[in-house]
Amino acid sequence: MEKRPLIICTDPGIDDFVALSMLLHRPDFEILGIICISGNVGLDITVNNALLACELNGREGIPVIAGSAKPLCRPARTACNIHGKSGLGESVERYSKRSAQKLDAAAFIADATRRLPGKLEVLSLGPLTDVAIAIDRYPEIRSLFRSITVMGGGIHLGNATKYAEFNIVSDPEAAQIVYTSGSPVVMVGLDATQPCLIPRSRIAEMKADSELGNLIPAMLADYADVYRSVHGIEGLIIHDAICAVSLWHPEWFQTEKQHVEIMLTEDDHLGQTYILENEKPNCTVCMGCDTEKVNDEIIKAVQAVI
Ligand code: RIB
Ligand code: CA
């Protein structure tokens, strides 16, 4: 079976780390590179955490590249109130011995699309800055992607603000470039991820006598603590892992073809993803998923790697 070439753009981040750990062991993907971006925490920390994910999952050979340190045209946001200063939870602070490869993120994406026309998949688990730079700097690649799957947005809800989801509102201009580029965008937003609440008690199913088998439960316990204190939610929603599952179980996700754009007004609606009914669809929007199957798949995938 031909492996699916994949570039992951990510801001690890606890849920990113879980998604990376799942993906780094899947035989059906050839991960060409991991592009780190500032988002949940600063760029130097997301790079460290991606390097750590590769080390702890035995995939040190995968290129880790430092992408954008800030959004296209506004100050960087942070979610360290959710992911802790280390980006991996308040109780976790681990440092990688390695450093990122000195490659340009946008050029790396563009080169891969040209080398693999119609085959390259991009999984975006953080702000869309580097994907937008690639599409803007090299417009000819817009039609060369097989897909750009985005954990981001929410037609009916937000989490960073009342109306906007964190990855989109962190760089709304970048999201607007990507969503209106004509590239094959698949939006796995809060409409699909928010209902996938995993009870805290199930963290124990992801514990084992191994480095990852101790690290991931520790991160998730911190994540659950914060979900209770910040969001008033009992349990945890591993957004990026849910989005990753959509790559190999798309049938578990209910989708609609819609025209989606991003609010760029400097008000409460900044970063809101909204549908324009009478416009040509530009996006496959996941409006829900089989939450039980998706959550069981995440736990099974983590159990396979710890
Ligand atoms: O809104 C959830 C998304 O924002 C996830 O990707 C999480 O890691 C943060 O980046
Ligand atoms: Ca993320």
Write up what this structure looks like.
This protein is an alpha/beta fold. It is 36% helix and 16% strand. It is built from 11 helices and 10 strands. It has helices at residues 14-23, 43-56, 80-83, 105-115, 129-137, 166-170, 172-179, 190-193, 211-231, 239-248, 291-305, and strands at 4-10, 29-36, 64-66, 121-124, 147-151, 185-188, 253-258, 260-262, 273-275, 283-289. The strands form 2 sheets. An 8-stranded mixed β-sheet has the order 3-2-1-4-5-6-10-7, with helices on both faces. The protein has a two-stranded antiparallel ribbon with strand order 8-9. Helix 5 links the parallel strand 4 (121-124) and strand 5 (147-151). Helix 1 packs parallel to helix 10. It is globular. The two termini are 26 Å apart. 51% of the residues are buried.
What is the element layout, followed by pairings?
Layout lengths: L3 E7 L3 H10 L5 E8 L6 H14 L7 E3 L13 H4 L21 H11 L5 E4 L4 H9 L9 E5 L14 H5 L1 H8 L5 E4 L1 H4 L17 H21 L7 H10 L4 E6 L1 E3 L10 E3 L7 E7 L1 H15 L1
Parallel strand pairs: 1-2, 1-4, 2-3, 4-5, 5-6, 6-10
Antiparallel strand pairs: 7-10, 8-9
Helix pairs in contact: 1-9, 1-10, 4-5, 5-7
The structure holds alpha-D-ribofuranose and calcium ion.
